[in-house]
Amino acid sequence: MSVDALKSALPDYAKDTKLNLGSVTTTSQLTEQQLWGTVLATALASKNAQVIRELAEEAADNLSAEAFTAAKAAASIMAMNNVYYRATHLIGDETYATLPARLRMSVIGRPGVDKIDFELWCLAVSAINGCGRCLESHEKVLRDGGMSRELVQEALRIAAVVHAAAATLEAEAVLAPATV
Hints:
Layout (H helix, E strand, L loop, with lengths): L2 H7 L5 H12 L5 H15 L2 H14 L2 H26 L4 H4 L7 H4 L5 H15 L2 H13 L4 H31 L1
Helix pairs in contact: 1-2, 2-10, 3-4, 3-5, 3-8, 3-10, 5-8, 8-9, 8-10
């Protein structure tokens, strides 16, 4: 199970997604930990079992046990935070931003890996989950920590491609009975 297996599972009409999946995982300027942590966190955020299975196995081969756990933690904490912060932002009443969230988020302060790597994974998950407030916050931490815009963009491309693979496979699963 691997990126190649996932590419093989995608239908012919998703050729661009196949090619992009290969490209974002083989030509990245991110460190191996940043790359595979981003791949794993976004696969989990995609909520597609096939994408998770295929990409998690390859990520496990490229990440330490601590980094693998931290990438899972990034997907988990952002599943909560993206809902909360997106909602408080979309309500349009800035008073909500001044209220304490009262949600436990200690993993963000002590993720068990380099903070920049964890922030990158949180940013990528936030892109999939569509939380502008979280995207702004994590991008600022990354940029203040010395990460270039080009590397931030790489994580966003990974999120986009993993999400596209998941959406395509979900659509195929729904359409399969109709096309048989």
